[in-house]
Design brief:
With about 120 residues, this protein is mostly helical. Helices cover about 75% and strands about 0% of the residues. The longest helix has about 40 residues.
Length: about 120
Amino acid sequence: MTKALNRYYKTLRKTLICSHASKTRFIKESDAFVADFLIDKPDATVEELSALLGDPVVLSETFMETLDPAEIQHSKRMRSICKILVVVLPVAIIIFLGILIYYITKAQSEIELTQEIVTYLY
């Protein structure tokens, strides 16, 4: 049952678009609700827990309706920035390393080695 409950909470965390503090508070409240239910009915099945809590997507949408819209907007913006960084940063690093390697090899090919013999006459 723990595995199914962990999957439920994972889905719930993914669908919650809010600050970390709000998400943690809501997950703790849900966890306390489940713990209370399991005290009353220790042999409860996953289906009974799912029926009690409802669909995780619907539950997260219901919770987000109680939040400040500015908090949700901020969280959406931060998610978008993180997604962009995950794509752009590796590409920028690869381009930078490619240019660096190109200039290093070009600089090495332009180096001309000469040998001079110096003789001193007294």
